[in-house]
Every structure is written in structure tokens, then in C-alpha cells.
Design brief:
Two copies of one chain form a homodimer. By secondary structure, chain A is an alpha/beta fold. Chain A contains 15 helices and nine strands. A nine-stranded mixed β-sheet of chain A has the order 3-2-4-5-1-6-9-8-7, sandwiched between helices.
Chain lengths: ~425, ~425
């Protein structure tokens, strides 16, 4: 989708991604809930745009508060964030781990429909309310209930382990395993530069060694290590989606915004299996639409935020979006192209493996990271944005390549 | 919101509202699940608009499949309905029992944003998977978790019983109880004219007597009877939301569509209590916006589909939207104004009490009923649409007056 009028994102805010790895995290102590995360992120954005009076609508991306927190109806928390939002339109959107991306799409459409000049988009998830194995059962609702009966106890790790196994068989195991370890190393190295990242304080000496260890199928899955997995996180991210008018109202100069130049949103059938487990076909479709509608090629991207729920998903995505030929994704990573100083820096604050994965928040977090990078706000994690590559791409995925939101952003000046 | 371009709804479809009261319903036998309901309703609409090739996007309104059916990610069921929808954008939206209305709002914005000419909007809920008391706990997630701890076991019946109690105290009990009984009688009489209604086969001789019986607080709530409550239902409803171009592509003449002339969408703070339990203030705000933006008064409405999750909600709504003065809602009902031959026929196929309340589907069902009435498709339930009153209104509510979607529709010719 090519926007019918100018549209921007501004005023991003991330809470800490909370969970194992953070010093503040103590599983036995009471911790912040949905309310605190929504408030912190929502108010963090409101403070940058002149307050609730400048907001016309709200949207919340959330996957499974229904089970993690025994709470539905999250759109109705907007006025809790700020009483100035009372009676304004608000809703929750959901597409499993793409819920955050869908919140962005929903906000973008509100602005394009001219029902709003400014939409407050928040993604949130608070998952550390249950043990990991029960959490896996909750997250498994992103897949088809009737198929889950036959799946792995850790359903999604099992799904992506199967993808890894198929990839190993087709293209070889050794180099792929090395590349997955490198993906992990890049993620942690980037996370160490971002104060809100869950792995910010990671002090592992040899990340390559940690990432290369052979999986222990009895403990987890056949082909994935814990280092291949995204984090179990609590967190929220917020950003404002605005028209030119909304930007003016907020008193924000154009240089502090990123332009949304195209959106690709694609959905596949949850009841079907991937035709080829070594391809992410819905990601391929969504990114193709986004790049086409933006009128650019993948080589014009300065950075990508991609959905590495598992390192193998990151690797296969590189091939499915045309950065590497099929079977050459591992080489592409091992040559250093995806590192923060490489040809195309990916997940510059750590991605889902390093920064964290508060599921319903992740899509919004990606947009916030892109906004930070393209406006020079990324602090220690700042990468160079070449003048001839003013574009960035985010890829947010729900389920096993079933719902995908891909957005192309442009530096404004 | 006043649409920035012409927008219509066409090709509605309702499944049966399944549950107690339907002859087909046997709680001990396996019944249709989400998949079957989504397929029946989705295909029912697709068949009327020339198939999936004419659909650009999909949206699913659903409240709590996460717990009723252990299933999230409902947007990814679109391509299961028809493989022609594969890779097209789709998402789920949620706002408790207003989820269906939010699906309509989301589809309307897609068309207004020009990202779609035709959106397939489906609402679905399959609730008879658990006993009523556990179902009440699931539905209670529409309220704030932290307040629910102090509430009634049947949380929402408890909330609306409290409203009824406050209303009785302020305006008197006897006449109000009579009006609630009449609301029930109207609902059942209308449902008996609609083959998909859950109370279609209701054979109670004396509906007034059934509705007037004094509540037994030990069995249920202080101030509400079972006859004051909406049904526990399984069901789905679908409708197509189209631009003029979408209407042409579907090959549907204008007379078979209804125009969407205005939308009012308002949200209140889920963590707060109603300021005055005898007023529905969010309904008041949403309807005010919808009528204002439509440029009409409540007297120009030929019919209203309103969210009578409990009869007292229906009664108070009449006052909050200006049909009756505060305290005069009971008189308005008892004078016969809301019956199918009255001044303003309300819930002409039975509403939530008579037709049924498959929660996430209800908002879409309301639109389908309006579409049927304004295009002369309502069969035995057809009411007269006066030439000088070509408008209809739907009011869909989530939680206790927290999320409201009000839509004004117009007969096209």
C-alpha cells in the first residue's frame, strides 16, 4: 500500500524489555503489570507530542493478555494512560506476534482515512506471569489449535526447529549452525549498546562459542539452541502516527520524524503448512509489496528490523526478501553483511533475540528503533545512515509466517 | 466520523445463533467450531459479491477465542475460508463485545484510506465450549481484572444488576420492572420472525409473565432475571464493506446496498466506574458523534439495533441517546414505541436477548440486520421503512459502556 497522503511516525518510546537477563528481574517478586507498561510507554510518547489533546485516536497491539494477564479489552486502557483520551476512539488489534505491526497498520489507515491526524499506537505484552512451558502453550495459540495437538510441547520452537532441520538437510548443517551462532553474536553485541535491551548487561565472553553449542534435543528441540530463541519479555513500545497536520500540531520539526513510504501486509492460511519450510513465503510477499510500492530495491535500505523469533527465521528471511540467494543466507551472515558495520545492519538494538520479544509490542518496537536510527537518536547503538540509502524496512511476523507486516520508512532530511 | 468518500455495506450473512433454545443445540454432542462458523459466514458473503477475487482485505471481530477455543490469530483464518484470500491483508480486532463493531470500523477505514475497495468483515464467537459460570469468568475479561476480584461471580450480570438497582432507586421499581418485561416480550416476538434467531422456536405463552417474575438473588443477581439477559451463543456474521468501485466490481446494484453515512466510536477508561450508573455516557458520546456527523436527529431513524446485553442496558440507552427523557425510558417502552409497529422499532430480529449474542459477532450481526431491513430483505421480520425516515442506527457496546461503536446507515433508494 502506497499512502494516499504524507504520513509520518514520531515520538517513539520503549520501556525496558523485562525478563531473564535484566538485573531488575526477579521472578519471585511482584512486578509491573499491563497497566504500568501501557502508562509508561503511552505517556512517554504523549510527552513528546504536546499531550493527549493532540491525539485523535488510540490503538493497542497485544497478543495474549487474555491468558497471560486474564485481561481483554485493552483499547479501553487508553483513558487510563491519560484522562485527556477519554471518549476518543480506541481499539485493540491482534495477529499473534505481528500484533504490534498491525497496530501500526491500523493507525496508518486511520490517518489515511482522514478520521485522525494523530494516532497513538502502543504495543504491549506482559508474559512473565507464568512459567515458560505454560507460556509456550499460550503462545501456541498463534498456530492452529487442531494442529497443535500433534506438535512439540514448545510448539513454536518446534515449528522453527523443523524449519532449521529442513534447511540443514537441503543446504548443509555446519555452516548454517555457524551462521546461527553469528546471528546470536550480532544480536547480543547490538543489545549491549541499548540500555532498554533485555541483553544489555550480557557479559558472556565468547558469544560464538555460546551460540555454536550443539542443541540438546532432550532438553529442548532437535535443531535449536536456547541462543537461537527470542527472549520471554514484558514490555511496551509506543509511537505517534501523524499526518502533516498532526506533525504541525505536535510542534515537531520534520527532521525529527520518519516518513512511512509503503506498507506490505500479507496473511496466509493458519490451517495450512508451509509449502517449503526453507522459504518464508508470506514475508516474501509482504516485503515485495512494500518495496514495490515504495519504488525501491532492497539495496537502498540502510537498515532492517526483522522478526528473528528464532535465528533460523532471520537467516531464511534474508533469502526470502532477496538479500541472499537461496542457500546463501549463511554465507551472507558469516561475511559480516548483517552486522552493525556491515553492508546492511540488521536489528541494530538486538532484535528479538537481543533486545527482547514482548510479543504484542515487538512490531511497534521495530518502528521505534527505525525512527531512532533514521533521526539520529539511537545513542550508542547509532549506525551510519548513508546519504544514498535513506530507507529502512521493518518486518513483523505472526505465527509461523502467517501474518506479516512490512513497512518501508524514509529519512525526512 | 463523516466518511471522506462514498461507502456502502452489502451482502450480509448470518449463521444461526446457536445455543440453548435452538432445537439443534445439544450441549453433550460435538458441535461446529470457529472454523465452521467462519467458513459459513465468510462464504455466505463471498457468494453474493462474485467471490474472493473481488475482496482486497479481511477483518475478523472476535472477543475471546483465546479462552473459549484456545485459539488466537483469527485473521489468519481468512485464507481457510477461501484460498483466493491467500496473502491478502487480514487482522483481528477486539474490544470485548464491541469487537464486531470494531471490525466494521476497521473495514470502513481501509476503504476510506483507499487501501481497499472491498473488505470482508466477519464477526465470530463460539462460547458454548464451557459451562456458563466459567463462560462468565471469560466474559469478565471485558472488565478490569483488578476490579473483578470484588465483583459478582457472574461479573457483567452483576454490573448491570447494580445499574438496575440504581435505576430502581432513582426512578422507581415497579414500572421499570414492567418495562424490562416488555423489552423481553418485544425481543422474543421479533426473534420468532427470524429463522436464524436463537429464540426463533420460543413457545412461551405469556411472555409478560415470564419477564415480570421477581429475580431470585440467591440463584443469580439482585435485580436481574434470566429473561433480562442476552443469550450465550455460538455464531458468525459477515458483510462486505465497499467503495463505489467495490460495489461495481461485485456487480451489485446500488439499491441492494446501504450507505454508511457516519460512524461514532468512543472509548472510556476500563479502570474507572460509571459516574452515574443510570446513564450510558459512552453510548451517549458515540451516538451524538454519529448523528451529528450524519446531520440527522434521532427522529429521522426508521430503526435501531442496540446492544441489549441486559434489558436495563436497552432501557437506559433510550434515555442516553435522547429518545426518552431521563426516568422516562420505561414509559417509552410501555407505550409500545420500541415494538416492531411502534414509533421506532428496536432490535427487529430480537437483539441480543432474542436473536442471540455471539459476542464478537454481534456488531456485525447488527449491520446485517440493518442492511436486511433497509433493502427489504428481512422476510417475516421486515418492518416498514417510511420514506421520510431512510436512516438506521446500530449501537454496539464492549464491557460496561467502555467501548462503543455507533453507525448511521441510509437506504440508497
Amino acid at each position: 500500500m502506497k499512502p494516499r497522503r504524507k504520513i509520518y511516525m514520531v515520538a517513539g518510546y520503549n520501556t525496558i524489555s523485562m525478563g531473564t537477563g535484566r538485573k531488575e528481574f526477579n521472578p519471585k517478586k511482584e512486578r509491573a503489570g499491563l497497566e504500568e507498561y501501557l502508562k509508561e510507554a503511552g505517556q512517554g510518547t504523549l510527552q513528546q507530542i504536546g499531550g493527549a489533546k493532540n491525539v485523535d485516536e488510540g490503538v493497542v497491539g497485544n497478543f495474549m493478555a487474555a491468558r497471560f494477564n486474564n485481561q481483554g479489552h485493552l483499547g479501553a486502557f487508553m483513558a487510563m494512560i491519560d484522562q485527556g483520551l477519554r471518549y476518543k476512539p480506541s481499539l485493540r488489534v491482534e495477529g499473534a506476534c505481528a500484533s504490534g505491526g498491525l497496530a501500526l497498520v491500523s493507525g496508518i489507515k486511520s490517518v489515511l482515512s482522514e478520521s485522525a491526524d494523530t494516532v497513538l499506537a502502543i504495543g504491549v505484552e506482559v508474559q512473565n506471569t507464568v512459567k515458560a512451558i505454560y507460556g509456550a502453550d499460550i503462545l501456541a495459540t498463534a498456530g492452529w489449535n487442531k494442529r497443535r495437538k500433534d506438535g512439540h510441547a514448545y510448539f513454536f520452537p518446534g515449528q522453527f526447529s523443523d524449519r532449521a532441520g529442513a534447511y540443514f538437510q537441503k543446504y548443509g548443517r555446519e555452516k548454517t549452525r555457524l551462521a546461527m551462532a553469528r546471528w546470536y553474536r550480532n544480536a547480543i553485541e547490538n543489545a549491549r549498546l541499548c540500555t532498554t535491551a533485555q541483553e544489555y548487561a550480557n557479559v558472556t565472553d565468547d558469544l560464538d562459542e555460546a551460540g555454536i553449542a550443539e542443541p540438546n534435543p532432550k532438553a529442548f528441540t532437535d535443531f535449536l539452541n536456547y541462543t537461537d530463541c527470542s527472549k520471554v519479555s514484558d514490555g511496551a513500545s509506543a509511537i505517534a502516527i501523524v499526518s502533516e497536520e498532526g506533525l504541525k500540531k505536535a510542534g515537531i520539526p520534520l527532521k525529527d520524524a520518519v516518513e512511512v513510504v509503503a506498507v506490505g501486509h500479507a496473511t496466509d492460511d493458519i490451517t495450512s503448512n508451509p509449502e517449503d519450510p526453507t522459504v518464508m513465503s508470506t514475508i516474501r510477499e509482504a516485503v515485495k509489496i512494500a518495496l514495490n510500492d515504495a519504488g525501491i530495491t532492497v539495496d537502498q535500505l540502510a537498515t532492517i528490523e526483522t522478526h528473528d523469533c528464532f535465528s533460523i527465521a532471520g537467516l531464511i528471511t534474508l533469502e526470502s526478501i532477496g538479500l541472499a540467494e537461496p542457500g546463501k543466507g549463511a554465507d551472507f551472515i558469516l561475511e559480516g553483511n548483517t552486522s552493525r558495520t556491515g553492508k546492511i545492519p540488521i536489528n541494530t538494538t538486538g532484535g528479538l533475540i537481543g533486545w527482547g520479544h514482548p510479543t504484542g509490542a515487538t512490531g511497534v518496537h521495530q518502528a521505534v528503533t527505525v525512527w531512532e536510527q533514521l533521526t539520529g537518536r539511537a545513542g550508542d547503538a547509532q549506525i551510519n545512515i548513508p546519504a544514498d540509502k535513506p530507507y529502512a524496512l521493518s518486518i513483523n511476523m505472526g505465527g509461523d509466517d502467517r501474518t506479516v507486516v512490512a513497512i518501508v520508512y524514509k529519512k525526512t532530511m
